[in-house]
Amino acid sequence: MSDWSKVTRPIPVPNEWTKPFWDSAKKNILSLQRCQQCHHFQHPPYATCVNCMSIDLKFEPVEGKGSIYAYTIMYHTGDKRFASAVPYASIIVELDAAPGALMAGNLLDAPYTQAKVGRRVEVVFDPLNEDFTLPQFRLAP
Fold first, then answer.
1. Mean pLDDT of the chain
2. Domain with 71 in it: what CATH number?
3. What is the reported pLDDT for 1?
4. In the structure, what pLDDT confidence band is assigned to residue 109 with cuts at 50, 70 and 90?
5. 122 part of a folded domain
6. Which residues contact 78 (CB under 8 A, 6 or more apart)?
7. 12 in any annotated domain
């Protein structure tokens, strides 16, 4: 399995659209942006709804269970901070509670060979420091 214990991840720089996502993650809550007009969930957050262009957007908590939509195996890294984790699975997850909203993350606590399209995963919260917690994924039981 990948050794994430020696990885020093980059720290996010929130903006006006992403700050509510990071504030929720710090509390171990997964919240995604949802259009109040057409009810479409979207991720990453934007200034307007990607479905209907409304600006009436709010963050709502969602259950962090879903399926691997796509993945790639990282055998090399351009950033030396990730060297101890190589090889690892970088995954895109479609959440059950937010169809169409795709989240990127890494598959933790499993060999990278376990990443398969359609495989069930659940969110886990990985503290980066006192201010930021990163939502990641592990295989669902």
1. 95
2. 2.40.50.840
3. 79
4. very high
5. yes
6. none
7. no
